[in-house]
Design goal:
The chain is 23% helix and 24% strand. With 202 residues, the chain is α/β, with parallel strands linked by helices.
Length: 202
């Protein structure tokens, strides 16, 4: 069985929108694109290389795929570029066609996305990583399809923007697998799905 791992860069108040650049995603009037830039350092780059330096496939929403497609085929070097380009890229979209997706090893999931993703999880193969893809993540969380969360938590708040845990979040417990922090204050925390939420009283 394959694991689905969500890798997200988030602020202290849970915003995940447009971490990489000013024009990455301006929907909703978002004006803070590229908010991760001041905090990246050698330590963070090392973590990224470790997380993407082994075989994996990708599960992406249409918007994230559209952002990545013009960039990564032209940057097929380094640990991250090599990993992304060699991965099979499963794209959840009702509008994208195979002829539109000329990036090598792209597979479009058009119909019942949840059913298709469940089938993928049952197959043999490498882990399936999810980057960006905020709307897709809500679907995954709602259907309890996320096995692990690899979070990079940046020491800022933005007050507005798309959040990791939004309309798709369900009550769920997670277990911390490991954590560390960079000199710039970014917390790297990896969690695995850990059963149901328990309640009680003090």
């Amino acid at each position: 069985m394959r694991k689905i791992i969500v890798l997200s860069m988030i602020t202290l108040d849970g915003v995940m929108q447009a971490p990489g650049g000013p024009t990455e995603d301006t929907s909703g009037g978002f004006k803070y694109g590229g908010w991760t830039f001041p905090y990246f350092d050698e330590y963070g780059s090392k973590i990224m290389d470790e997380q993407m330096g082994h075989p994996f496939d990708l599960l992406l929403g249409r918007i994230t795929y559209g952002i990545w497609k013009p960039y990564w085929p032209e940057h097929n070097d380094g640990v991250i570029g090599t990993g992304i380009n060699r991965a099979t890229k499963y794209v959840v979209s009702t509008t994208l066609t195979e002829s539109d997706s000329d990036w090598e090893k792209t597979v479009v999931l058009k119909d019942d996305a949840v059913k298709e993703i469940k089938k993928l999880k049952q197959e043999n193969g490498p882990e399936i990583q999810v980057h960006g893809s905020g709307n897709l993540i809500q679907t995954l969380l709602k259907n309890d399809l996320v096995d692990e969360l690899w979070l990079k938590i940046f020491p800022i708040t933005l007050g507005a923007g798309k959040r990791l845990f939004a309309d798709g979040a369900i009550p769920a417990a997670f277990i911390l697998k490991g954590s560390s922090h960079s000199p710039s204050g970014v917390i790297f925390a990896n969690y695995k799905r850990g059963g149901e939420v328990k309640t009680g009283s003090f």
